[in-house]
Write a structure and sequence with these properties.
The chain is an alpha+beta fold. The protein has three helices and two strands. The radius of gyration is 19 Å and the shape is extended.
């Protein structure tokens, strides 16, 4: 109860420790590793296209909406 009343949060990661995340990010930056994204315009048509592709199972990697 003291945690709740003090508005404290406890957060963790089931993936890896913080220093492992830091090492992975440093490795990615050093070797210029970037995510592969499919970009869609942030319009009704672009969102419709992205959602259709996602629903059909055709989305590869990461779908990103780009503001126009």
């Amino acid at each position: 109860m003291p945690l709740i009343l003090s508005e404290l949060n406890i957060q963790g990661s089931v993936v890896a420790a913080r220093h492992i995340h830091k090492q992975m990010l440093e490795f990615s930056a050093q070797h210029k590793i970037e995510p592969i994204m499919e970009k869609f315009p942030m319009t009704v048509e672009g969102i419709t296209q992205a959602m259709a592709k996602l629903n059909d199972g055709g989305m590869r990697y990461r779908g990103v909406l780009i503001p126009q």
